[in-house]
Amino acid sequence: MANLALGAATAASSELAADDGDSSGLLGWLTYSDGFHAPTVEEFFPPALFGEGTIFEFNRIMLARVIAAAVLILIFWLVSRKAKVVPTRGQSVVEMLLDFVRTQIVEQVMDKENAKRFLPFLTTLFLAILAFNITGVIPFINMAGTSLIGLPIVMAIWVYVLYLGVGIKQHGLGGYLKTSLFPAGVPKGIYLLLTPIEFLQVFILRPATLALRLAANMMAGHLLLVLCFAATQYFFFEAAGAMKAMGTVTFVAGFAFTLFEIFVAALQAYVFVMLSSVYINMAIEEEH
């Protein structure tokens, strides 16, 4: 479903950006309307709030990240500060989230000993990604903290360093390279083809796909929402005659995509942490 959102956003952006003069269809008509402005990649490079042109530049995406991190820390501080044996509603929600990560993600991949060992890291990763993703549907922020590739890359590198580190610690450098690049039970001649593929997968594709999948889905969701609500504003306030009624259609579509984006925000946190658990588990297994 997340890929559907990405495909839809790409298709919409391509049609809106077309310059071949074809104005057939609703999107084509909107593109050539004076009052409507289609979303572009410039959405992900908002004006600086301060520090423009420096390494301390602070914009709306950075603000979304700071707010998400602050709210997450505040929630857990309040819950842990007043934790009770009979939990309150807020404590129950937090405990359900923690239990979900433990039982539905980490323990589905690892044995209980390793799950307990890596649970704090993976839980932190899940909650952070969920918080950064959900800012994309928060009014007046309307931008996911993970919609720009920098933060997903940092998180992917975090996972990358961890699974390489635990793998080398478990097997030694030579042993880890052997188990990763030369899987057991494979005819020797096949290694000529298999080993380069395994090298690309372990050392390049895993972190790259973690980061790209997360950022692409958040970008696609933002573009879909901007497209729907920009069209809604145009139809309600600038379109003439019966075309105003189309604003209702685009508003309903925008509301539906908002609900869908909340689902995608949670789904991408789940996928990122599930794959991270798999990669860590593969690094510490004797054979894989």
TrEMBL record:
Subcellular location: Cell membrane; Membrane
InterPro entries, A to Z: ATP_synth_F0_asu, ATP_synth_F0_asu_AS, ATP_synth_F0_asu_bact/mt, F0_ATP_A_sf
Main location: membrane
Cellular component, GO, one term: plasma membrane
Family matches, as Pfam families: ATP-synt_A
Assigned keywords, A-Z: ATP synthesis, Cell membrane, CF(0), Hydrogen ion transport, Ion transport, Membrane, Transmembrane, Transmembrane helix, Transport
Domain of life: Bacteria
Mode of membrane association: Multi-pass membrane protein
Record has Cell membrane as a keyword: yes
Coiled coil spans: none
TM helices/strands, residue ranges: 61-79, 118-141, 147-168, 189-208, 214-237, 249-273
GO molecular function: proton-transporting ATP synthase activity, rotational mechanism
Keyword Transmembrane helix tagged: yes
UniProt cross-references to PANTHER family, sorted A to Z: ATP SYNTHASE SUBUNIT A
Function text: Key component of the proton channel; it plays a direct role in the translocation of protons across the membrane.
Family the entry assigns: Belongs to the ATPase A chain family.
Name of the protein in its database record: ATP synthase subunit a
Gene it is expressed from: atpB
